[in-house]
Amino acid sequence: MSENTPVRTPRHRGIYLLPNLFTTAAMFAGYYAVVASIGHRFTEAAIAVFVAALLDGMDGRVARLTGTQSEFGVQYDSLSDLVSFGLAPSLVMYNWSLSSLRDYGPVWGKIGWAAAFLYAACGALRLARFNTQVGVIDKRYFQGLASPAAAAVCMSFVWTMEKFQVPGPSLCFLTLAMAVVVGLLMVSRFRYYSFKSLPMGERDRVPFLWVLVAVLILVPFLIDPPRVLFVVFTLYLLSGPVVTLWGRAAHRRRTRRARP
Q1: Which of 27, 103, 122, 259 has the most CB atoms at less than 10 Å from its CB?
Q2: Using CA atoms, how far apart are residues 229 and 157, in angstroms rounded to an integer?
Q3: Degrees (nearest 5) of the Cα angle 254, 242, 187?
Q4: Nearest by Cα to 133 from 141, 245, 85, 60
C-alpha cells in the first residue's frame, strides 16, 4: 500500500435499542435485588427478581416481533440472566439466611457462603450449556431446571417467609438445602417442559380447559401472590424428576415387552 492510499476505518456493527433496553432493565432489577438484600429489604429483593424474570421474557419476544434479533442480544441476554437469576438469588439467600450459619461456628459460616456460590456457579454452568446446545436440543423441553424458574422457587420462598414474619436465620439449614438442591437441578439432566410449544399467535386456538386453568391460577395469585408462586414453581421443580424417571421406567417396560 502506498502512503496516499486512504485507510479504511473499520465498520462498527450497530445494536438494536429496544430489546436491549428490556435486557438492561432486567439486569437492573437483578442488581437492585442485591442492593435491597444488603439493606435487609428482602421482600423488595424477591419482588425485584420476579420483575427481572418478567422483563427477561419480554426482550426476546420484542426482538422477534420487531425483527431485531441479533447475536449481540443473545449474548447480552445470557449475561443479564447470570446477574438476575444467578448472582442475585444467591446473594439474597445469603444475606437473608445463609450468613447466619456462622453463628454455629466458622466452618458452618464457610458452608453458608459456599452453598450460595454453588447456586451461582450452577446458574452460570446452566446458561453456558444452554447456549452451546440451543441448536440441537428439543425446544419443547429444557435440560435441567431453567435459571429463571430456579430463582422463582427460591425468591417465592423468601417472599412467603417474609410475609409471615418468619426470620431467615431460623431457616438457615433449610435454605442451605434449598440452595444446593435447586442449584444442582439446574445442571441436572432432568427434562423440564419449556412451554415454548404453547399456542401464542393470533391464529392459534386453545381448548376451553386452558382458559379455566388460567383463571383458577390467576384468582388465588391476586389474593396471595407469594404462596401461589411458591406452590406453582415448586410443583414445576418437582415435575422434572417425576417426568424423567417416569419416562425412563416406561421405556424399560416397553423394551422388556419387545424382547422375544
Answers
A1: 122
A2: 9
A3: 110
A4: 141
The pLDDT tens digits of the residues spanning 139-157 come to 778 889 999 999 999 999 9
Question: Distance between CA atoms of 29 and 15, rounded to whole angstroms?
Answer: 22
Cell numbers placing 171: 431457616
With a CB cutoff of 8 Å and minimum separation 6, the contacts of 172 are 97, 98, 100, 101, 112
The C-alpha cell that represents 238 in the structure block: 418437582
**Residues 118-128 pLDDT 10s:** 999 999 999 99
Q: What is the pTM of this model?
A: 0.86
Helix H, strand E, coil C: the string for the chain is CCCCCCCCCCCCCCCCHHHHHHHHHHHHHHHHHHHHHHCCCHHHHHHHHHHHHHHHHHHHHHHHHHCCCCHHHHHHHHHHHHHHHHHHHHHHHHHHCHHHHHHHCHHHHHHHHHHHHHHHHHHHHHHHHHHHHCCCCCCCEEECCCHHHHHHHHHHHHHHHHHCCCCHHHHHHHHHHHHHHHHHHHCCCCEEECCCCCCCCCCCCCCHHHHHHHHHHHHHHHHCHHHHHHHHHHHHHHHHHHHHHHHHHHHHHHHHHHCC
Query: What residues pair up with 6 in beta bridges, in sequence order?
Result: none
Q: What is the dihedral of CA 251, 254, 258, 260, to 10 degrees?
A: 100
User: How far apart are alpha carbons 96 and 160 in whole angstroms?
Assistant: 13
